[in-house]
Write a structure and sequence with these properties.
Layout (H helix, E strand, L loop, with lengths): L1 H14 L5 E2 H8 L3 H13 L4 E4 L5 E4 L12 H14 L7 H15 L2 H13 L13 H13 L1 E8 L5 E14 L2 E8 L4 E6 L3 E10 L10 H12 L3 E7 L14 E5 L5 E7 L2 H10 L4 E5 L1 H22 L9
Antiparallel strand pairs: 1-3, 2-3, 4-5, 4-8, 5-6, 6-7, 9-11, 9-12, 10-11
């Protein structure tokens, strides 16, 4: 229903240019069939918009010349919801959205009935927006391009700049956009790394669809917003762990790739990096690999590993000497 409503609004916007639109051109612009265009035109007529049709090879549609547009059919709650939404959008972290929101509010006021127009004007006059001190601004073109790639299930490529200003080329299957804590994220499957990743939109450069379509995969946990939140919690952890593992990267479970980065070091070894709030959890993961490893950083992880090794050695000696017998009788 939401897609149908958006399409009809886009159709109305095109027709309000007061120009003649061939039926095939409208269908191509809206990415629907000519039959769908005819149904949408009928819907506009039911709402009171005077759309004229010309039949034949050169057929098409246009609004009747000099026709007055009927008022927008909204109740009081819907009008207030629109205004609040547009005012909130004016503070969103998308470049150019503030100006577009102001223009949309002006257009909305023109088509509302007088009573609702007074309510909207009163709400606008009585509300004082408080700007954020350090907004992270996203390019509207980046947002739009990736939104379409998610909708159409089309693979995309882009350059990504990480927190250390390192730039890498990424090839992904876009899954969903997430707005969390006034910051936009793209959840996507990275085809080179063969795993799910979260990308901040303000760090994405020059996104382009590659033209290749894909079948949507099941995201871990089934919730894109929860996936982003988990990644943020990990990224904000205080410990940066770096470990050299005496095993090839393929020995690291694929399920770990959500939390760790693996880098081949040549030979049979690999380098593991991760951020964590719990060194105990990091050491538990490393111990479950059943491979020798060398801690590069932080020193606290080395200290914890030595403490665990002493405790494990004591426990092993106690069992070996029979000091503790937990055999069931």
């Amino acid at each position: 229903m939401a897609n149908t409503t958006s399409r009809i609004l886009e159709l109305l916007s095109l027709l309000q240019n007061h120009r003649f639109w061939p039926g095939d051109a409208l269908a191509e612009r809206l990415e629907v069939s000519p039959r769908t265009v005819r149904r949408d035109v009928e819907r506009l007529r039911e709402l009171g918009y005077p759309v004229e049709a010309r039949r034949g090879v050169d057929g098409g549609y246009q609004l009747a010349a000099g026709a007055a547009m009927p008022p927008l059919l909204l109740d009081g709650e819907e009008a207030v919801a629109l205004v609040i939404g547009l005012q909130s959008a004016s503070q969103a972290a998308v470049a150019g959205l503030a100006e577009a929101s102001v223009r949309a509010l002006a257009k909305l006021s023109q088509v509302l009935p007088p009573q609702l127009r007074r309510q909207v004007d009163a709400l606008g006059a009585a509300t004082v927006p408080v700007p954020w001190e350090t907004p992270v601004v996203v390019d509207a073109a980046v947002l739009s391009s990736l939104a379409q790639a998610c909708r159409d299930q089309v693979r995309a490529s882009f350059a990504y700049v990480d927190r250390n200003d390192n730039r890498t080329d990424r090839y992904v299957e876009p899954y969903q956009l997430v707005l969390l804590d006034r910051r936009w994220y793209l959840v996507a499957f990275d085809t080179d790394r063969r795993d799910w990743r979260t990308f901040r939109l303000d760090r994405i450069r020059d996104p382009e669809p590659t033209g290749g379509r894909f079948e949507a995969r099941a995201i871990p946990g089934g919730d894109a917003a929860a996936f982003v939140r988990a990644g943020i919690d990990t990224a904000s952890a205080p410990f940066e762990v770096e470990v050299l593992i005496d095993a090839p990267a393929d020995d690291v479970p694929s399920s770990w790739r959500r939390w760790v980065e693996i880098e081949e070091t040549g030979g049979r070894g690999c380098r593991l990096r991760m951020r964590t709030a719990s060194l105990e959890w990091a050491l538990f993961l490393l111990g479950s690999l059943e491979s020798d490893f060398t801690v590069v950083s932080p020193p606290e992880l080395s200290q914890l590993a030595r403490a665990w090794s002493r405790r494990f050695a004591r426990s092993a000696r106690r069992v070996a000497t029979g000091a503790v017998d937990h055999t069931e009788r």
